[in-house]
Amino acid sequence: NAAQFRAAVEANAPGSVVQLQNENTDWFGAIDRTGFGQEHNVAVSGAGASNDYRVSLNFLDQKGIIDANSARRFGLGANFSQRLANDRLNLRFNLRGTRSDDRFTPLGVLSGAAQYGPTQPILDPASETGFYDWPDSNLTSADNPVAILNLAEEKGTTWRGIGNMQAEYSLPWVNGLRANATFGFDVINAKRTNFTPSVLHREIVSGRGGQQTRYDPKQVNLVMETYLNYITPKPVGPGTLDLIGGYSFSKTNGDSIYYEGTGLSTNAFGNDSLVPAATTKSIVFKQRSKLISFYGRANYNIDDRYIFAASVRRDGSSRFGGSNNYGTFPSFSAAWRLSQEPFLRGVKALSDLKLRGSWAKTGNQSFGNYLAYSSYQLGDQQTQYQFGDTIFTTSRPSAVDPNIKWEQTRAFNVGLDFGFANQRITGAIDWYDKLTSDLLFNVPVAGFSNLSNFVTTNIGSMRNRGIELSLGARVLQGGERGLTWQADFTAARNSNNLRSITPFGGSSLKILTGDVSGGVGTRIQVFAPGVPINSFYVYEHIIENGKPIYRDVNGSRIDGTPGTEGINEQDLYVDQNGDGIINQGDLRPFHDPAPKWILGHSSYMALGNLDLGFTLRAYLGNYMYNNVASSNGDFRELTQGSPYNLHTSVLETGFATQQLQSDFYVEDASFLRLDNLTLGYSFNLRGQQARVFGTVQNVFTITGYSGVDPSGNIAPSSTTSSVNGIDNNIYPRSRTFSGGLSLRL
């Protein structure tokens, strides 16, 4: 608050006290609001002797919890099916179109709310904009978030059409043989514009003079699949045989145009029209990718007691080059329903017991296009050069590994399904072991060994082992008017380990990842053999009286005031390798973002016309790096021109300078959250079925994590997220209250 901020400035940056005003501004309170919204859905359906249809309309208007943030969406859907030729031919059509109009939170609003001094006012009638800014237009001072919110604008409009058409024909000359053909599309056409006026504080101090950007992405996804399915009309031996053979083709075309203009000639038109600018940049992007597959599958079922399946698919991706375009991926599975065996039929309480196992090899190619081929991008005006009387625009190639190939995972699974009391209690237990080889990742390479410092390539192997449990029970069965209760529980535990790293282009056996704000090039996570991926890679901070120490060699607190000799890191961090100095060799893996356990519970209860449902979720043993605290948790921020507001952790640590790589900021982010709570009442309205309901989302969260959201930026065992487990998010998760009425006419 303002009193704490003033005291911190007086103690650590007395020269900046003169800049402080006498307000007590809650900057987050100045930009947030209660976001009201409405959603309406109407559907009409019908059926004839050989067809059925459904048409639906949807409208959503939602205001965000940050002022000026909103989303409005219109949707139209249509489904139609027709049976022809004595029901041998089935045709199905599904179409949906939407238009979305969004107003986004402009860049700098949230960071400004976190960093702007609470002693300063929101408004200044004497300024050109009417909003207060720090004096002297200091380059390093924070920006007034309310000014950004009112003067800048970022908005977008998106049109999207999704559809598929399916034809299924039972061939008359071969009993049991069916042909199926499907065609689908997903078309997206969007426009996103951003306007930052020249009168904003950051535009003045940076000398940029205002900015306009426009981004128009278009993407067309096409899918075609055809297959034959043959089910033997008579048993083959003791069982039935189900065969499928098919081919699928998918293509994605992406085209986009990006324009950027800085040094605007006028602010009069805002986002409505592009205006002349001192510097402009236009970029055209084109992306093309294809994936084709040939596949076959065979299922053999003996009285639903012994079930066997085998499949193989041959996938070809345009994202890989040369001889690595194609991958072959087989799978096998078997199941034995023990409850059908004579030795268990006498167990009356047992209604189902099935043992199953499977082995499969799968491939992953979802890591971008042109992974094996260099693509070229034109440079901007700053990279042009003159040769004679001609000015040439340069182009730069992308970095590639021409030998890149499919990422492959071999998975082995053993499971047991069970049911008791005529399926009143059901559940499953699964154990799996997944070995992933040729991991795809964007890694740093040695300087001058490629066309960039980073390249996407295959880096090594990873193992995931775990167990999954599920249990469902009809706890109470009260009949039509009595109390009923259905409860479901899930639990999952996964152990992740990076087994090996294959160096590329001179890279090392450790790959640093996880960029954090507050430093230049600082990365806080590591891929290293023997530890989970995305493990935090930090110094072990010496703890004294339960707090991280921040002292010099004489035992005096270092506060960053003039005349101090700086930080002796030997007195802050543990010397892991005992060489007498603190350097990169003393960083060590320390926890990781993936939860050790993921637990879930849902319940549905009904009594008469009342119904109640809720969903609980828990993550246990997951850790988060609090980048909001580490980048703003030191008194140095008070000396940067006009003083920044600080994270409250500095009151505990007393850090005078940033300690980005301290394990102090790696926090246990375990939590229990009630995600959803719904109460409803059903009744007859003039002979029609009706229901009123109320729902609360994000009801409560129990956690010891000090950040805004303990579940943010968690993608367990993922190699594709560059911010996995790093919390630089200050956008709060909203609690939503909604009510509605549904009618069936």
Please, could you describe this protein's structure?
The chain is mainly beta and 745 residues long. The chain has a domain at 1-23 and 111-146. 6% of the residues lie in helices and 51% in strands. It contains seven helices and 36 strands. The protein has a 21-stranded antiparallel sheet. α3 runs antiparallel to α4. The longest helix is centred in the N-terminal third of the chain and has 11 residues, at 2-12. The radius of gyration is 31 Å and the shape is globular. The two termini are 56 Å apart.
List keywords for this structure.
745 residues; mainly beta; 21-stranded antiparallel β-sheet; four-stranded antiparallel β-sheet
Strand content: over 45%
Query: Largest beta sheet, briefly?
Result: 21 strands, antiparallel
Note the overall shape.
globular
Indicate the structural class.
Answer: mainly beta
* Percent helix range: under 10%
Low-confidence stretches: 552-566
Distance between the termini: 56 Å
How many beta-strand segments? Answer: 36
Task: Enumerate how many helices there are, as a single number.
Answer: 7
Radius of gyration: 31 Å
Average predicted local confidence, pLDDT: 89
Task: List the SSEs and their pairings.
Blueprint: H1 2-12, H2 27-31, E1 37-47, E2 51-63, E3 70-84, E4 89-104, H3 109-115, H4 145-151, E5 153-170, E6 177-196, H5 201-206, E7 211-231, E8 240-264, E9 277-302, E10 306-317, E11 326-337, E12 350-364, E13 376-378, E14 385-387, E15 390-392, E16 395-397, E17 407-420, E18 425-437, E19 440-444, E20 454-458, E21 460-476, E22 483-501, E23 511-515, E24 523-527, E25 535-538, E26 543-544, E27 547-548, E28 588-589, E29 597-607, E30 610-620, E31 623-626, H6 627-632, H7 650-653, E32 666-668, E33 671-685, E34 688-703, E35 726-727, E36 736-744
Parallel strand pairs: 31-35
Antiparallel strand pairs: 1-2, 2-3, 3-4, 4-5, 5-6, 6-7, 7-8, 8-9, 9-10, 10-11, 11-12, 12-17, 13-16, 14-15, 17-18, 18-21, 19-20, 21-22, 22-29, 23-24, 24-25, 25-28, 26-27, 29-30, 30-33, 31-32, 33-34, 34-36
Helix pairs in contact: 3-4
